[in-house]
UniProtKB/TrEMBL annotation:
Residues 6-379 form the Kinesin motor domain. ATP binds at G117, E118, S119, K120, S121, G122, K123, S124. Coiled coil: none annotated. InterPro entries: Kinesin_motor_dom, Kinesin_motor_dom_sf, P-loop_NTPase, SMAD_FHA_dom_sf. The keyword Nucleotide-binding applies. This is Kinesin motor domain-containing protein. Belongs to the TRAFAC class myosin-kinesin ATPase superfamily. Kinesin family. The keyword Coiled coil applies. It holds the Pfam family Kinesin. Keywords: ATP-binding, Coiled coil, Motor protein, Nucleotide-binding.
Amino acid sequence: MAAEESIKVAVRLRPFLETIKEESDGRSKRIIRMDELSSTVGITNPDNPSDIHKFTFDNLFWSFDGYSEQADGYFAQENRTVSEEIYCDQKQVYDEIGKEIVQNLWNGYNSTVFTFGESKSGKSWTLLGLGANKGFLPQTLTDLFKCVREKEKGFQQNGFSAEVRFTMAEIYNDRVKDLLPSSASSSTKYKNVAKIREHSKKGFYVEGLRPVLIVNHEDIQHRLEEGLINRATFLTSINATSANSMTVIAITLVQKSRNHRGDEVTRMATLEFMDLPACDVLSSERESDESMDFICLSNPNIKANGIDKLSLCVDKLLEESIGKHSGAVPFHYHGISKLLKNALTGNSRTYMIVTLSPSETSFKNSLFALQFAEKVRMLNTSSAINEEVTSKLIRELKGESDRLKKLITLGEFEQCNYFTTQAGELLLLSPLEREAFKRRVTEDMKAQIKENEKEIRNLQQPYEERLKAFKIEKNDLGKKQENDRKNKCHIFNLNGDSQISGKIIHIIPLGTIDFGQVNKGKENHFLVLCGPGIRDVHGTFTYNSKDGKISIKPAGPNCKILVNEMLIQFDTILTNNDRISFGGNQIWVYQNPKETWLEKYAFSYKLHYEYVSEELALKSECYRNLCQTGPPSDELQKELICLIPAIEDATAISEDLGQNFTMKPLILQPIDMLLRESNTEDSDKSSYYESFKSIKSSEILIKVQNSVDGTFYYWTTNKFYEQLEMLKESYMQFVEDNEIPLKEVQAFKERSDMDMPIGYSIICLKPLAYLVNINTTAPILDYITFQQIGSINVSLSICDDETGENMNDVEVFIESPDELIDDNLTAILCIQSPDKICLHYKEVYCKYKFLEEEEMISTKLDIRPPNFIGISNKYEKKFSIHMITENTLNLILTQYLILRFYGKQKAHKLLNLMGTVSNTAFDPGRSANPFEQERINAQLKLKEKVEQRHQRRLNAMKALVDQSETLGEESIPVTVVKSLFQAKSQKQVDQSLEEHKESLTVVPEEEPVEEKQLAPELKALKRFSEVCSIV
């Protein structure tokens, strides 16, 4: 009878690593605490030390410190430790969990052990180990065979026999590869030699895996080494690491004995070890950033390598456990979730080992791993002893096969287990999808019949006969490689995963030997290099027997080879420990054991993958272009070191698939960040800038450009890594089938009608606080480089509050913005057609937010050809602010109107005309901040306006003085001076002067008619009299 029990969870903390800079140089702090008494793990938020998350688990393993390395390389507990915890070595981890698992296996219970954690957290170290530090799996197998020998001796009279079957597979991009193929089927291709099927009783399983019989401890080491070498060959051929792949190792123990009736009883149990992909959490800080709202973002919280689907399944299972109906659990979404279904819900005793990095830089990943483990611990499985009388078991298998054959013949799929378990989802399928589902079910049932027939043969055939027929290959591949490595010139692979690095060794023989792709029909290539960017004949090794020197030469200009991070074009002599890079980004190391100084540098730091990959990235042309305006920050440099090799891989795959796409990284500095960093005098007065304090200072985008039609789009790094995995899957299918999988390659492209970011225009609103109209030809700044790529006419005109009439003809300029408080302000925004950018876009849109508007306003702009003659439509919108407060006035004084342009591209050939292809990022240290420039321009306009008013006042006062002198006025009334000083236009000045003149001129009395007639004579006499008096 099945017994329900919860999944057990253990947590292990690794030490700081020398290969990670932040940890080796002491810059990183430990954020993980463990309390073994309460079995509690605490993780501290590095940004908020008071924010501590605590979790409780079944086992805690402190492996952070308190250890020393012994002579054989084993890390053991020190006699004295300065830490408050006691170091747990590999043996102690196994003793606390492994012995119980081996006992479960003997008792007939299925068991599953899976490791979970981020990249480089110690998953593979815990499960497989390295060198003398044997991991959980090797110790389990050693203990298992020790028990087998003891039981075989103790139960010989009972007809007891035991056999151990061993399988090993790799899942990458939901494709399964058998890591222990037979010699006849052994291949370095990417063929999907195994498929995941669903069994009516066993659940999901891998069809087609070759089970290997293990008879002793030596076989264990041999098969593990064989599987790891095949795994390294497979992952190296696509420049991959274990971060995106899962290793599944299954050990099946079959015990046969006789009961008290004399019937043969078979007890069969399987122990599965699963090294899951890295649970790397992706950054989603940019998802809500307005400056990124044009870009096609696809940023899930978890890296899309199967862990995201597994997390979804666990959430659904928890909802079911509390009675919440949430539909079918989507285990079928991914191969990883399929193979873990039985471990999470079925007939299994399951153990989860969570590995953690102590570094503060791993806070998000570690917190997610602990939260996920806490959820898994709440799940229950139903384990039962898998034991049955052999004859009955055979009858059941035959009966199940007959039933499936009948269902296939009659087409009664509704009676199949798949329809009953997924009936809810099937109702939503279209007729075509339902037919496809029936075909898949038919294939699964046929595969199940084959599995049943194979199991019947295994049960009926004695173990000794099958062991003899199996012909175990005593191929000491590992020992042979080690001997060749010590005595012959060779190259070996480097990889970021220690389980893969150094596993592939190629011996260089005397003479001249070509190397290149294995699957291109070139039988004479001794050195098989599969992978993107590697040609049919990629290069030549020449081993000169006279001087003992070895040289390497590329076969052509398209055959990329780098030696010590330098691109070579001619024959180049190799020296010991030279680093060689082929194709996209495959890294190898050349060693010559005959050189006397080999031992001195055998373990040089230059042989670490981290060092070599960093040197390759920092010396690449791509990185040099990015550094034209100065080196990036440490954070960005760390990200670029990982990103640049991946971009080279993606570019090489694109070329091999015949796609015309190039990729290059660009550093984006958000425009809102530039606003915060601008040296605005009044910025400290406004809380507006507080909202930008959490904005990331800069971010890397990948520009993907079609080299034929010039169209391009941007990817975030998260999006890029997702698409890279799709590209690698397409590449594997292309190599195997020799045809391009159009569906997957299309997924690499984006929609041609998607809106792409163009750039920005920035308008300082400060003049509005002085009631000064804004009428400017604003430059359009490129989205990435902030270089000018066009221009646009923008105006903000003050309007009359009541009539709405434009007040362009009346100067309403005020000298103190405080005069606006408690007053109203109405302005009309006018945006004309943009200039130049119409060359590359068929539609252009503009988004902006004005002052305290809550939502972005979007409008389509009218675009015209460069030499268009005529009237283009303009965009206008009126904004009114009632009862201006101090806060509103402060916003007007400090805010900017940011116009964000985006549009739909049109094919063109000369993208350089627009200037948007520059790799150079905006550098605030060398380039003027666009906000600062706009603020200075606004200040100059205000200063010019003030000077114009002062000059007008000065001219008015001068005119007033001249007029008074002419009229003989000795003093000027204050009211006249005040009227001139407050005049807002030259018209008002002229009017005030005329009124003053009229007030000083005396109107003469009306003369009699007779006097008028004598006027000329009287005037003449009057002048003569005056002259006489003067004389």
